[in-house]
Amino acid sequence: MRRGGKRRQLKIPPQLAYAGCCEAGKTDSNVRERAGTKFRIRWQRQRVTLHGSDHVLYLKHNRNAQAIASLKGEAVSIQNDIARLIEELNASIQQADSFIKQMQ
Fold this sequence. Notes:
The chain has a two-stranded antiparallel ribbon with strand order 1-2. The chain is 87% helix and 4% strand. The radius of gyration is 44 Å and the shape is rod-shaped. Strand 1 (2-3) and strand 2 form a beta hairpin. By secondary structure, the protein is mainly alpha-helical. The protein has one domain (13-103). It contains one helix and two strands; from the N terminus they run ββα.
């Protein structure tokens, strides 16, 4: 502060000046520590989120692969059923033809 052209200096006892310096240092280290903790938490959360989304994606692909495999199995089963049905129809047609020939 200036009064009348003279600069006034505050007289702070050395013990208080040193204590204030240490308190400022503690505050700075606390701020740095908290910032580091926030960063680690954010990083871990992102890592867990990415791992979780990778796991969900894996499960989706796995379920889709299982569904496709079961559909392929169903397609084969349906093709076998159709082939059997066609054979039965042909046998029925032959029996009907032989019956008609007997009637004539």
